[in-house]
Specification:
Aminopeptidase i, Domain 2; five-stranded mixed beta sheet
Length: about 425
């Protein structure tokens, strides 16, 4: 059976995922864990002068957290773990109430690279946030999570489509709207249901960011329960590991020799081009301001970046047993073999030999295995926030990730040991011993 330390970490991971059906819930859950460990939230309008200890800034679906040891010089280098909070899914349109042929349906838009067949015939709930009327004309936000079987995207019966097993693609425009009732569409029905779940008056709802999620809880799979199966492993595995590592670095017996940082961005699955994405100046501005708040100069800021190191942590591909020809023949990671180091010479990943050396040295100190990954030359390579962070900050960066199957599916799989291995390595990097 799986050793207890790994199972303990993944038990906590599954609780984190179950409570985080949207990027906004990911940030709220991470912030709650940080506050429990003694971190405090800073707002942009606050005075940051002299701020030390555990600190974080949250903005919608993004969170930047860091820990400043007492008496750390302003030029102390950063150790950054970069992740993302979003996952491919179905997002509710601004005018959602629709229907046809006597069925009431909800209009949705496809977010990111969604394998649509994995969303068919699943019981779906609703989550996200509401923007509500607030005092002095300033909107307030309210999270909502409805873990009830409200909706379903029904698959066409095989009797009506004999070609379904021949790889016929789902029509994205016409057949993705989930059903949730019989009868004609009723304008405002969805808003009333969601507002009631949040305990709010529908008249106070001015806007929303709502999405669908599979309500099947995360769990374990396999004869020895050696696999984790859950929605949104990409990339909540890495967010959870980053939060765990940052808390361990801040509360451990040994004070970090660096400024450990967790940067959890939103919108990675659609290119990171938003105010909370990795292409934005969010991380750069926050880290620069943290240096200035401790009395640092431009020279201190430059020195802190010159000695910085970033680990971009995102899910990776394990070799697929039914499609092994799609993988490089000499790079075939397996679950429970440790995180992968992802390499692409065309800079779809930011890894170079220096980054490899730093990560593998930390893995050795943590007693954790690792595996190399490179894409098959005949297959397009994915990417991550690593190249964006490396280009924006000019810091040494390595792209890594827990290997899994069914990436971007409504339900993904990884090894039970690998999330704990990743967290242990990240802790070692943040502490710097």
């Amino acid at each position: 059976m799986t050793p207890a330390p790994h199972r303990s970490h993944t038990d906590d991971l599954l609780s984190f995922i179950a409570a985080s059906p949207s990027p906004y819930h990911v940030v709220a859950g991470a912030a709650q864990r940080l506050e429990k460990a003694g971190f405090r939230e800073l707002r942009g309008t606050d005075d940051w002068t002299g701020a030390t200890g555990g600190l974080f800034v949250s903005r919608a679906g993004a969170l930047i957290a860091w820990y400043v040891p007492e008496d750390a010089p302003a030029h102390t280098p950063f150790r950054i773990v970069g992740t993302h909070t979003d996952s491919p899914n179905l997002r509710i349109k601004p005018a959602p109430d629709t229907g046809t042929s006597g069925w009431r349906q909800i209009g949705v838009e496809i977010y990111g690279g969604v394998p649509l067949n994995t969303w068919l015939d699943r019981d779906l709930g609703i989550s996200g946030r509401l923007a509500l009327r607030g005092p002095d004309g300033v909107p307030r936000n309210r999270l909502v999570q409805i873990d009830e079987p409200l909706l379903r995207v029904p698959q066409l019966a095989i009797h009506l489509d004999r070609s379904v097993n021949e790889g016929v693609a789902l029509d994205r425009q016409r057949h993705i709207a989930p059903i949730w009732a019989l009868g004609d569409p009723q304008e405002g029905e969805l808003l009333r249901r969601v507002a009631a779940a949040a305990g709010e008056d529908p008249a106070d709802v001015l806007g929303w960011d709502l999405m669908l999620h599979d309500i099947q809880p995360p769990g374990y799979l396999g004869v020895d329960r050696e696999f984790v199966v859950a929605s949104r492993l990409d990339n909540q595995v890495s967010v959870h590991a980053g939060v765990t590592a940052l808390v361990d670095a801040a509360t451990g017996a040994t004070q970090p020799g660096f400024i450990p940082v967790l940067a959890a961005f939103d919108h990675e699955e659609v290119g990171s081009g938003s105010e909370t994405g990795a292409q934005s100046p969010l991380l750069e501005r926050i880290l620069s301001r943290s240096v200035s708040a401790r009395g640092g100069s431009d020279e201190d800021w430059s020195r802190a970046l010159a000695g910085a190191f970033c680990v971009s942590a995102d899910m990776a591909h394990a070799v697929h047993p039914n499609y092994s020809e799609r993988h490089d023949p000499d790079h075939r990671p397996l679950p429970n073999g440790g995180p992968t180091i992802k390499v692409n010479v065309n800079q779809r990943y930011a890894t170079d030999s220096t980054g490899i050396a730093m990560f593998t040295a930390a893995a050795e100190r943590a007693g954790a295995p690792w595996q190399p990954f490179v894409s098959n030359n005949a297959m397009p390579c994915g990417t991550s926030i690593g190249p964006l962070t490396a280009a924006r900050l000019g810091v040494t960066t390595v792209d890594v990730g827990v290997p899994g199957l069914s990436m971007h599916s409504a339900r993904e799989l990884c090894g039970v040991r690998d999330p704990g291995y990743l967290a242990a390595i990240l802790t070692t990097i943040m502490v710097g011993d």
